[in-house]
């Protein structure tokens, strides 16, 4: 791997060339845990500015893939470019250009709202002035100004989740990775949360989101459905419904999942 | 650097917000020290002893007086024959018998060698060995003060196995306690604080941020270096002001060695948190695998020399043992680096070993998770 594989300059590798508008390029990604194959030859591109959904049942390999893209885990093989940087050799650069929000909302219970914001802004290298400026805007937007000095453990779950998302994009990353961000939240809060995702996408941030809620798939620009570590389908929700003659994404998913199950079961 | 300090600030907030941690950090050292201090000093104050003086000359009289005036011993009775020794012990109050051989002063004068026998009550072996070593220390001091060129006094072989020059103070417990508490604070607290991030899932977030793993670990460790250092100072100060434990050697060296030991314990804490994912497990490992050996196998309470060979081998791989040796050497004997460079190097080696092992474990975790 030569280090000059970045940006949209055509790298001289033997895999597929990333299209110009691809901000994430994955070619032949394999991740094995011993003999278990968690990601089985995944190949896909994520376009700049889109909301890219990664769907699948628990254990289908979604989290494994997202962790590799965020540099939290090494791939076994495959070629990966994230924000134009090589996953093997330029992880530090990748980390500066991405935001990450995991299933657990990852705020510190014993710190206040403001302290949490300040902390995440600081570890992404924002200046003190910038931190106060953005934290102020953020709290105004989320109507959290009065809760500024409240401990996180004292505020409701819905707020925590919105705050966690806002904090994940406080440094204006090129891509934000959301790993099942809506787990355990009621439908109304989920809907509000998706409004925030749209807003982020409109401001130019590419959103890579994993979920196992099929209704959320409808909100994505394109959806990649994983079954047993492989990509079973990848298209816009509308085209997927058409291809599989299904009314909802849930039906699409069930058809795909059943097709993979051995006959007679 | 800005990232790093942002992280350190957060770590301090965690600590100061949790008053229980603070209590552990600063309450325990003070309480432990005072507890241990008074228990141990009470034990050797006014121990009753008997003298069997077969010489009855000026020197033996002076020596007896020295022992009495040391404050550790109280003369219970004078014996006249060997047969009375057993009887004296059996009556219960006596914990030590000092026997001066006949013609003690004359032999000392002419042959430069005279014999004293110290007989301890080994039904309580620890205090017996402490008393014997106190007494022999006092005798040696006296003879040194007589300015003889050669040290004329030989301790009788029967008591020699208990003879331990280094036990010469009431101050054994300060180095031991320091080792124990620094180990507790450093290893336990860091391993807890790192595994807590793992449990909360925030570790993922930190690793996905531009913070380098090394910065995360250093940021975690930094507050505890600072706090453990304050603790070390509290212990030394309390030991000095309440119990009069001297600092005969260089304070700078003492602090440097404490710093080294703290680093060692911290790297051990990092290692523990690399191999565990839950706070509970980290706590179990720290307490059972670190605290007990520190107390039992470091020579803090039980003398290593009296242990079976196998356990002695275990003692040699206990880092606190070396720290205790170092601290005793600096505080009580006033030695410089020249006398303790070997122990210092060993502590340094332990630190390096634990750090390298942690890095290796951490890399394995990245490829296999």
What does this structure look like?
The complex is a heterodimer of chains A (265) and B (369). Chain A is α/β, with parallel strands linked by helices and 265 residues long. Chain A has a single domain (22-260), classed as Rossmann fold (3-Layer(aba) Sandwich), CATH 3.40.50. Chain A is built from nine helices and ten strands. In chain A, the strands form two sheets. Chain A has a six-stranded mixed β-sheet with strand order 6-7-8-3-9-10, sandwiched between helices. In chain A, a hairpin with a 2-residue loop joins β1 (22-33) and β2. Chain A starts with 21 loop residues before the first strand and ends in a 5-residue tail after the last helix. Chain B is α/β, with parallel strands linked by helices and 369 residues long. Helix content of chain B is 69%, strand content 8%. Chain B is built from 15 helices and five strands. In chain B, α3 links the parallel β1 and β2. In chain B, α8 packs antiparallel against α12, α11 (251-275) runs antiparallel to α14 and α14 (319-331) runs antiparallel to α15. Chain A binds chain B through residues 33, 67, 70-74, 92, 95-96, 98, 100-104, 106-111, 115, 118-125, 127, 177, and chain B through 2-3, 5-7, 9-10, 13-14, 17-18, 200-202, 204-212, 366-369.
């Amino acid at each position: 791997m030569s280090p000059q594989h970045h940006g949209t300059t055509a790298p001289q590798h033997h895999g597929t060339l990333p299209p110009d508008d691809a901000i994430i390029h994955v070619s032949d990604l394999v991740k094995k845990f011993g003999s278990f194959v968690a990601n089985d030859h995944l190949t896909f591109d994520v376009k700049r500015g889109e909301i890219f959904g990664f769907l699948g049942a628990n254990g289908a390999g979604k989290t494994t893939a997202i962790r590799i893209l965020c540099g939290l885990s090494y791939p076994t093989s495959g070629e990966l470019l994230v924000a134009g940087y090589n996953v093997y050799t330029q992880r530090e650069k990748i980390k500066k250009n991405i935001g990450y929000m995991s299933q657990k909302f990852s705020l510190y219970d014993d710190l206040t709202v403001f302290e949490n914001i300040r902390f995440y802004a600081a570890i992404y290298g924002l200046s003190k002035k910038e931190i106060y400026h953005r934290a102020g805007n953020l709290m105004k937007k989320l109507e959290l100004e009065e809760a500024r000095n409240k401990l996180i453990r004292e505020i409701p779950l819905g707020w925590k989740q919105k705050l966690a998302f806002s904090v994940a994009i406080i440094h204006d990353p090129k891509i934000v990775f959301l790993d099942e961000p809506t787990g355990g939240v009621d439908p109304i809060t989920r809907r509000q949360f998706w409004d925030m995702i749209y807003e982020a996408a409109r401001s130019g941030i590419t959103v890579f989101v994993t979920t196992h809620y099929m209704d959320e798939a409808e909100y994505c620009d394109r959806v990649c459905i994983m079954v047993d570590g492989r990509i079973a389908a990848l298209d816009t929700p509308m085209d997927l419904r058409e291809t599989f003659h299904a009314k909802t994404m849930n039906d699409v998913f069930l058809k795909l999942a059943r097709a993979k199950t051995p006959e007679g079961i | 650097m800005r990232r790093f300090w942002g992280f350190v600030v957060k770590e301090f907030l965690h600590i100061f917000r949790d008053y229980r941690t603070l209590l552990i950090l600063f309450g325990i050292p003070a309480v432990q020290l005072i507890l241990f201090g008074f228990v141990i000093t009470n034990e050797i104050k006014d121990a009753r002893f008997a003298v069997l003086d077969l010489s009855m000359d000026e020197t033996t009289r002076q020596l007896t007086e020295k022992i009495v005036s040391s404050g550790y011993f109280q003369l219970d009775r004078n014996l006249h024959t060997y047969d009375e020794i057993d009887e004296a012990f059996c009556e219960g109050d006596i914990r030590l018998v000092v026997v001066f051989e006949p013609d003690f002063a004359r032999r000392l004068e002419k042959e430069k060698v005279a014999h004293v026998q110290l007989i301890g009550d080994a039904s309580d072996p620890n205090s017996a060995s402490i008393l014997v070593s106190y007494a022999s220390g006092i005798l040696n001091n006296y003879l040194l003060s007589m300015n003889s060129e050669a040290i004329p006094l030989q301790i009788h072989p029967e008591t020699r196995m208990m003879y331990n020059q280094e036990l010469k103070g009431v101050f054994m417990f300060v180095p031991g306690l320091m080792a124990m508490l620094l180990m507790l604070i450093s290893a336990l607290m860091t391993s807890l604080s790192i595994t807590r991030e793992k449990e909360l899932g925030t570790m993922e977030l930190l690793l996905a941020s531009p913070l380098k793993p090394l910065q995360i670990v250093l940021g975690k460790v930094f507050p505890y270096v600072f706090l453990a250092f304050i603790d070390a100072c509290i212990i030394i100060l309390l030991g000095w002001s309440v119990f009069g434990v001297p600092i005969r050697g260089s304070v700078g060296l003492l602090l440097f060695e404490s710093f080294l030991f703290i680093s060692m314990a911290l790297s051990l804490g990092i290692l523990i948190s690399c191999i565990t994912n839950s706070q509970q497990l980290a706590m179990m490992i720290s307490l059972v695998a670190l605290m007990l050996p520190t107390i039992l196998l470091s020579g803090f309470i039980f003398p290593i020399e009296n242990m079976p060979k196998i356990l002695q081998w275990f003692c040699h791989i206990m880092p606190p043992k070396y720290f205790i040796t170092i601290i005793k050497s600096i505080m009580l004997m006033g030695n410089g680096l020249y006398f303790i460079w070997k122990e210092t190097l060993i502590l340094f080696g332990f630190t390096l070993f634990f750090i390298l092992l942690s890095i290796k474990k951490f890399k394995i975790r990245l490829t296999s998770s």
